[in-house]
Input
Amino acid sequence: MFDRLRELPRVPPRSGPLPLTFALVGLVAAPDLGAQESGTDGPAAESTATQEAGPEALSAQQTAALEALELRGATIGAINIQIDNVFNTSDPAEDKRLYRWANNVHVTTRPSVVEEVLLFESGDALSAQLIAESERLLRDRRYVADATITPGAYDPATNTTALNVWMRDAWSLEPDLKLSRTGGENEFGIGLSEDNLFGRGKSMTLSYESNVDRDIRFFGYRDANLFGSRKQLNANILDMSDGHQYAFAVGRPFYSLDTRWSVWSDLLDDERVDAIYDLGEVIDEFRHETRVLSVQGGRSRGLVDGVALRWLAGLNFEEDEFEPNPSFGPPLLLPEDRRLIYPWGGIQWIGDDWREMSDLNDMGRIEDVALGLNLMTRIGAATPKLDSDRRATVFDFRADRGWEPGGDGNLALFSARAETREEDGELLNTIVSLSGRYMHRNFGDELFLVNLHTVFANHLDAENQVMIGGDTNLRGYPLRYQTGERSVLVNIEQRFYTDLYAFRLIRIGYAFFLDAGRVTGDDPRMTPNLGTLYNLGMGLRLTSPRSSSNSVVHVDFAFPINAPADIDSVQFIIERKATF
Output
């Protein structure tokens, strides 16, 4: 099996870098908890056979049972919703002072919130596909540590079956203390986030952050089921040392593969100082104001023969204005102002092919991996008749696909992105990026990974750059170190997922890695490129499956190979990432 062992129905639950509340109280409660524990979180009543089954095997058994009921034409009877708290205090290993306190403080998710996510109701014809997709939608909510939907009691007289919906809450209130170092630059921040406000599934964040670019005061709010409906609302307000950003989005998305229509609107007002980099240093600056308004909709026949085909259309207003930054001086190259207003049309194809796996990009969580083809392309036309400042054709494309070459134990993922703008027969700001990732289980349950990412650009707008450095996973070098028009980056990793489970809060792993990257192409503002850059490294990986942050803390040491003399021989990196 590609996946490691999974325990059902109790698999542990964002760490800030780590759940700070737990970490602080854990130090006080340490005599009661023990220095560390190994193993996985699970109910004492789970059978040995169930505990030893991997997620893919259990999913196959569950799917077979549901498909058998679907073939009988069964309908859904009672829907039994069970929501477990963050810790299972009926397990002696978790019947501790800290865990009881955490459960008492935590506001569990309301059953009505779970009902708003489910794609079925009592009385509907049973559909194994809708049940599987509902599981994925639940696990995709940050406040959910894990979720399963299984068939319950079957009544042959009425041909109805109950469904048991189980989920475990993640710890959702996070004091966020950020202290990180990447590419030789330090960042810090402090904040508070709640991903399950009053148990209603709403998300709110207040934070302050100081990074290499600016100081940011941030407020964010997200409601994935506005007023209990399928509508969504996202709002972000940023007060920055060099400007501001207001971003709002509201509408009814394609919330499932079988959704038949969608309406959505986005509004963005952003003002900031943009910097141009060379060898990790700022060589140019200018002020940049962006205003965007987008209204769009879509129609679909739903999921037909395993494919959701969607027809999309919209109207975009995009305006970018640039001016010198008085505190920096005259810019080397000031970008040209742009104003584009254009209708557009597009198409999206989504294949319904998923796998449940674990210990790929996280530890202690089930990961839903999409293998089906997901392709979307859009084309729009801007003209002065619509108050654009030029005639232009705007095009963008994206595609994602996954495979299991050679069967169990192998996974390959491919991603492609492309965008360009045609003006007077010339393609401008063309950016094509291709990514490939291959993963192979070795040494039992460990993972060997090769990642390839390449970018091709041509006639870039002057505010854009193709860069590699410490912030793009070339970990032995400064941030934004090499720039040009084309880049290639290769990362090779050997990942190890240990059974260490400190305080039953923090999963621990480690990795050895080799990074290699190169930039080519001319930019008159840049020094000549330095050829291919290499580094070796190793590091720890820390994450809490109890937390709603869904993040992994990286503590790395990276060693550049044959680097220029001004590069430190060792780069020490602490950062939070979305993946292992």
